[in-house]
Every structure is written in structure tokens, then in C-alpha cells.
Amino acid sequence: MKVQNANNSSLKTRKLIKDTFSEMLSEKKEINKITVSELAQRANISRATFYAHFDDIYAVAEEFKTELFDALFSNEELGSANDFAQFFETIFLFMKRNDENYQILCRSDVTLFYASKFIVLVCNKFLELVYNDKRIKNHDNIELEIRVFFEGSLFEYVKYCRGQSAFTLDDLHVFAKEWCRKFIIGRSI
Fold first, then answer.
1. Residue among 110, 109, 92, 69 nearest 170 (CA)
2. Cα separation of 175 and 155, whole Å?
3. Would the CA dihedral through 169, 78, 21, 8 be positive or negative?
4. What is the mean pLDDT of residues 140-165?
5. What's the CA gap between 40 and 2, in Å, rounded?
């Protein structure tokens, strides 16, 4: 049975486990190379303490990922974004502030776990902005265009995180703003 009350000690232990997991994921690159025994030893806790908080390593990974998403999508600025520029600025500012954590995720095999959720959330918010923008008249294949843009951008971001891209996060930011500008012009006709 997992710890039910969220007292200070329990919260600190969960944070210690997630921080240790993050370090190990950064080093090992693959979640399946992290064992509960090794994580518990490195965090200086017992296996029983680990299992009092999490079912397995994948549960730690899921919580780590979920916290990053929750922080992004509970961001009041993003939620209240009512134009495209504010939308992109909010996402890229958040990504810069959390660059280390996103790089850990993107360099590991955990990437596949979060990529599809990220795409759905971002595309849905962007579509909401599109359908609320009176300038945009042409909606032909709009969902496909948006999805291809965001999936391609995410793929390039993962390459950036893995050191396999010639582009920086700032380059991607500039490109996204320019794509958006052209998107609005092209869809206003």
C-alpha cells in the first residue's frame, strides 16, 4: 500500500526518489537500466521505503513526466494565452526554465511516453486559438498542418536535447514565430 498521507517527510522522500531517478536517467539514458535496488542505495533509503511510495521505476518516471506537463499546462499564462505570440512565448520560456529536465527526458527512452501527450495538449490549445481568431478564414486541413508542424518541431527539439541538431532552442523559437506569422497570413486568404 502506498503512503496515503502527504506529510512533510513523505513529500521529501518522494522528491528525493524523483531527484535520484532524474540523475540516474541522465546518466544511464534508458529507464530499463535503472533498478529499484540501485536507486534506493543511491538515495540512501531502503527498498521498502521506495515501495511505500512507488510501485516501480516506471511509476517514478510517470510522476516525473506528469509533473513537468502539469507545470506547463497549469501555467496560467499558457491557459490564458489568447494570441499566437503569447502562446509560443509561454511555451518557449517554460522550456528554457526547465531545459535540464526536458533534456533528461528527451535523451532517454522515456521520450516516447510523453511525446504524444505533449503533441495532443499543444495542438489542442493551438487549435483553440485558431478557431477563436477571426483573421483565419481557411480551415482546410488545418488540424493536419498544425499537427505536422508541432510533431516536426518536437522531433527537432528531441534531436537538440540529444546533441544531434545544429539548431538551438532559440533557433526553434525564432522558427516557430516565423512559421506562425506565415500560417496566419496564409490562412487569412
1. 92
2. 14
3. positive
4. 91
5. 16
CA atoms within 13 A on the CB side of 86: 11
> What nine digits make up the cell of 69?
506537463
168: left (phi over 0), alpha (psi -120 to 50) or beta: beta
Residue extents of the structural domains in the chain: 8-56, 75-187
pLDDT recorded at residue 8? 81
Give CA–CA dist 174/178, Å, rounded.
6
DSSP state of 30: -
pLDDT digit string (tens) for 46-95?
A: 999 999 999 999 899 888 877 877 777 676 777 777 888 888 888 888 88
Q: What is the largest CA-CA distance in the chain?
A: 64
Question: H or E segment at 69?
Answer: helix 57-73
Query: Cα 74 vs. chain centroid, distance in angstroms?
Result: 12
**DSSP label of 140:** T
Q: Which CATH superfamily hosts domain 8-56?
A: Homeodomain-like (1.10.10.60)
Q: Are 3 and 45 in contact (CB under 8 A)?
A: no
Per DSSP, the three-state class of 125 is helix
d(CA 102, CA 1): 31
Length of the chain: 189
Task: Read off the pTM.
Answer: 0.70
- For the chain, the C-alpha Rg in angstroms (whole number) is 19
